[in-house]
Each structure stands twice: as C-alpha cells, then as structure tokens.
C-alpha cells in the first residue's frame, strides 16, 4: 500500500504539521514537484507560481489561522517555503485560474435509509502519475472532535469523517466565475468542516464564509444515532447552493446540479460527468447496500458499461490528460470509520478493503 497513516494526540496545529513532515517530508516534496510539472503542462508560467502560492497562503491565514499554522509547520519540517505549501494546497485553484478543465474525476453517491446512518461511497479520480504520495490522518480538532481524513501529502484535507457523526465527500467542479487571484483553497474548506461542523447547517455556514476562487462540491452526510441526512454544497466564487437528495438518493459527479449555478457550467456537453451521474443514479439498489464493500464494488462500471465511473488511464494521452480512480472509499458514520481500497473499484477484494 502507498497510503501512509498518521495518528497524533498533538493539539497545537504547527507542531502537528511538523509531525506530518517528519512522517513524509519526501512525499510532500514529491507532490509539490508533481504539481509544478502539471501546472507547467497546462500553461501556468513559472513566474506566476510564487504569486499563486503566496495568494493562497495569505487567504488561508486570514480565514483560518490554525490551518495556516499547520501548513507552515509542514513547510518548516520539509525545508519548503510557506508559498510552496500554499501552491500545493491551491492546486485546484491554480488549475481553475488558467481554465484547465479536466475530463476525468470523482463520482459520489449517498443513500439515506428510512432509519440508520447514511451510506456514502465515492471514487477519487486524479492524474495517475500523482498516485504515490497520500495520507490518512487521525487527530483531535480544536473543537474536540476526533477527525479522520484522507488527502494528498502536504494538503490540508479532502475526504473524511468526525466523531460527531459527520462525513464529507469531495468532487471538483468548474465554473465561469473561477478566476485569480487565488482565494481560500477548497481543500482547506473541506478540512475546516471536518474540524468544526456537526450538522449540515454548520457545514454550509463554514463553506459560505470562505472567499474561494475555484469550484467544488462538498457532499456532507450526518448521523445522530437514529436518523441520517445529507446534502451537496456546490461552491464557486459566484456563491453556493445546497442540493438535497431525491427519494433518498444523493449523487454528484463533476457538473453543477443547482439550476442557477449551472448557468456558469464549464464542463462541455460531451464530458463523462453527465453519463457518470446518470449511471450512478441507476445503481440505486447497489449503492444502497448496507455493506460498504458492496457499495464500492457497485462502482466498478466502465466505459463499455455506459460510463467510466471506474476510471482507467489512457496510455495514449499525455500525463495532464490521463485520469485514474486512485482510491475507492466509503464512510461508515455508525462506527466512525473510513473504509477504503487503494485503487479502482474493479480491484476491490475482501483482502484489499481496509478500515481506518
């Protein structure tokens, strides 16, 4: 397995960042090198890298000083600068600033039973050459919540849960309002929700408080020990929208569902996101399975089946145009666990399915 695990009782954010650096400084540096290569491939000029990184770090410091302190701890422990860690955390924002709209990306599903915890599952699809340097972390936030999350080394957050019964899935979006200067990184928004939110309303308030320059959708699910709830928070510089489930099922891929925000959609009509969205919705019975592994296996749907939910890289494409399902994960709010397979849904087996 290439996913490192980090568990700490450290409550000081800068010290926690330094601990992450001690665990995987080489992984952080490798991710930065990989993203600089990606930025160059999509047309970002080298002279703008420091500018973008500095803007991201400044926006984060103004919005969440604690997360900025953790990021600076990682920087100090890896021998990198603050702006370089800002650049890494703003990888979504940098790509949005130059209009780099990708074809492949994540698919998320949440089923709400009549009683019991929501049943969430997703693929995390990204460039196949950025596969090796990933992290699962567990710690206690300033609010006293035990948080578990998955991310790329050096980035503040992505997919996760906290022990208040809140989980979060993460998908990228693209909107005509995406721009520079760089705002609060959306990965930091996801992490702040995991650190502090216990309800969907709190998650929406946190997301709305961030001045972002790029788009994302944060699918938040909650469980109070009796009943569950879920909503997609579509976020872009033009504003946010909350999309609820239809008949107990909530699906999101990589296009805006809210009709107002969809007016600024950048994904072309030929993009796979629309077919993936429709196909995952058709899998209602499978993604409603109470067994998290069976939900993950349900996403083993390929282009030949009608939609590339399980994404395989095309060796004929350049690295910036190749995507792969690098992680398959399900959130278990009832038992406060993340389940995951290190790879594509079609490779999920009992022996490859792990809890964190």
Mean pLDDT: 96
Radius of gyration over C-alpha positions, nearest whole angstrom: 18 Å
Helix content: 25-40%
Spans of 5+ residues with little confidence (pLDDT < 50)?
none
Query: Topology as H/E string?
Result: EHHHHHEEEEEEHHEEEEHHHEEE
Number of strands: 14
Report how far apart the termini are: 14 Å
**Structural class, please?**
alpha+beta
CATH architecture classification of the largest domain:
4-Layer Sandwich
Overall CATH class of the largest domain: Alpha Beta
Strand order of the largest sheet: 1-4-5-6-7-8-9-10
Q: How many domain regions?
A: 2
Organism: Solicola gregarius
Domain Peptidase C45 hydrolase: 121-341
Protein name: C45 family peptidase
InterPro entries: C45_proenzyme-like, Peptidase_C45, Peptidase_C45_hydrolase
